[in-house]
Amino acid sequence: MDPRTLLITLTGPDRPGVTSRLFSVLSGFPVTIADIEQVVIRGRLTLGVLVAYAGGRSTGTGTTLGALWTAVERVAEDLGMEVELSTGSQAKEHRRRGRLSVSVLGATLQPAAIAGIAGRIAAAGANIDRIERLAQWPVTCIELSVSGANPAALRVELAAEAAAQEVDVAVQRTGLSRRAKRLIVMDVDSTLIQGEVIELLAAHAGCLDEVARVTEQAMRGELDFAESLRRRVALLEGLPEEVFAEVRKEVVLTPGARTLVRTLKRLDYRFAIVSGGFTQITDALVEELGIDYSAANVLEVVDGRLTGRVVGDIVDRPGKARALERFAAAAGLPISQTVAIGDGANDLDMIAVAGLGIAFNAKPVVRQAADTAVNTPYLDSILYLLGISRDEVEAADAEDGVLTPR
């Protein structure tokens, strides 16, 4: 006889013992567990259990399927819950190929955004198998498990919908490949920290406007980075080296930066920074945050003053990609297990090389080139793209005695 299935769905107020009661009853019947799924939203529980049994009305022990139905209905009545039961053929149940994770993130999520995303998924001939909330504050993030879609084509479709709905959407393959990304390589200026270090230095030199103008051109890709850096650094000539201590005090981390680094370090990720800025500032960030690897430029200092020159090779656009490859080799990881995060044209090569490239509050050219974009001001939103929920982060912080604020 063909194996058959019975889907049992309990809904009602959540309370301790619901799962135990149901499975205690099921243990008295010759059935096996084929699938289980449970979710609680605002104190209301939905528990779905799929059990398999021998074909026909008899379960093979003389106990009818009707007796199992009666027993389950009695449990639901005792618990003050509703129950639905439906039978089917196990042979017809299968998992569709091409499983993807679609993360939808926004300051707020409107029904129209979810309708638009879901509509695009359906139009692509794909199916939403599961929806889970990963975060509720300071941004909302939901994750959809999708099957039956081509990832490249779906990414294009959802990127268009995300722009229309003003949300962020990331499409990634599920499974081990997603969980195996163990090296994070991040830009520093306007990514790990707010603002540009060279502009902080320029403010002390009285040339902020000119430096800021050249910086913006370079970040948009309108100027060669190495040449733009030399032009800007030349304007700093004569600054006393004591300015580094002053600028280090002025550096402000991006909201969520500490949470991001702390959480990933707990999970044994390696963390690296690569910067077109300067070691005189980034070295302090490495020590403060416990960062594993770093690369940045070195400002020349002679007789206690800046010379207006850079020492050694400049960490430019290709230099950042080389640094990512060097860090991956040092960590003993393939490039496919790396994540690159940046905001400017100088980050394009490392974003292209990495297993996952993320544009964080980035220029348009970077958003178009990256695998996904995050446009919220909170750096720890990147955790949700890696499948880590806000509840998991806060629970780990509580265990370690870390305050929840970011």
TrEMBL record:
Enzyme class comes to hydrolase
Give start and end of each ACT domain.
7-99
Write the record's keywords in alphabetical order, separated by commas: Amino-acid biosynthesis, Hydrolase, Magnesium, Metal-binding, Serine biosynthesis
For activity, the cofactor(s) needed are: Mg(2+)
* Matching CDD domains: ACT_PSP_1, HAD_PSP
Taken from the record, one Pfam family name reads HAD
Keyword Chaperone in record: no
UniProt KW Amino-acid biosynthesis keyword: yes
The GO molecular function terms of this record are: hydrolase activity
- Pathway recorded for this protein: Amino-acid biosynthesis; L-serine biosynthesis; L-serine from 3-phospho-D-glycerate: step 3/3
Q: What is its EC number?
A: 3.1.3.3
Q: PROSITE patterns given for it?
A: ACT
Which reactions is this enzyme annotated as catalysing?
Answer: O-phospho-L-serine + H2O = L-serine + phosphate; O-phospho-D-serine + H2O = D-serine + phosphate
PANTHER family from the UniProt entry? PHOSPHOSERINE PHOSPHATASE
**Family according to the record:** Belongs to the HAD-like hydrolase superfamily. SerB family.
Q: What is this protein called?
A: phosphoserine phosphatase
